[in-house]
């Protein structure tokens, strides 16, 4: 990753969170459509780009790490309340304990998904024997970072936290994925990282992405009803087409 990729990873969180300061409440329909597009795109790149790399050698054990990532995300969601995939629960009490709980869940999630970003293109080249000019994993992370930051800021403001605390939480969240990528770069320089370890890291991120994307896509829009509106269905289709376009 170059400087601009690190900067974009940081800035998109600041942008998403900054926008939330200008809204008293979220436009739930618009947010749901944005999330639907990002969820479809994340699912698409997970299947089209990430899975082929980790399963290239035919190892069945790597599937265990995908499951580990899936269930780690379930655990983290208990801490974050699902903020990383656009859930907002205004009923939460405004207290320091809740803020710490949300931030721990979000920061661990962001750090983990940032780790494979630094070596993604090299990893893809080593596992599939192809040159890779685009960091599709980075695109997937960016797709859901802005909505997550928006919801985080909105949630903290609704819960009554002072702006100084909200901004501090936003800045901390923005730093986590770049720090994860930086950690991987440091491990590589110290010769503590090889392709097998990278496969495990990517597999865990795949499991996390599968949980996030499917949760977004299969949320029911109306209580007691299992249906997706035509508008949301179309947005999901565009998200999948965007993912498919990356293999052309």
Annotation, overall tally of beta strands: 0
Name the average pLDDT: 82
Distance between the termini: 23 Å
Look at the helices and sheets and give the structural class. Answer: mainly alpha
The domain count comes to 1
* Separate helix tally: 9
Rg measurement, Å:
18 Å
Helix content percent band: over 70%
DSSP strand content: under 5%
Shape: globular
Poorly predicted regions are: none
Q: Report the biggest beta sheet as strand number plus sense, adding barrel if it closes.
A: none
Order of helices and strands: HHHHHHHHH
Brief synopsis:
By secondary structure, the protein is mainly alpha-helical. Helix content is 73%, strand content 0%.
Characterization of this structure:
This protein is an all-alpha fold. It has one domain. Helix content is 73%, strand content 0%. It is globular and about 50 Å long. The two termini are 23 Å apart.
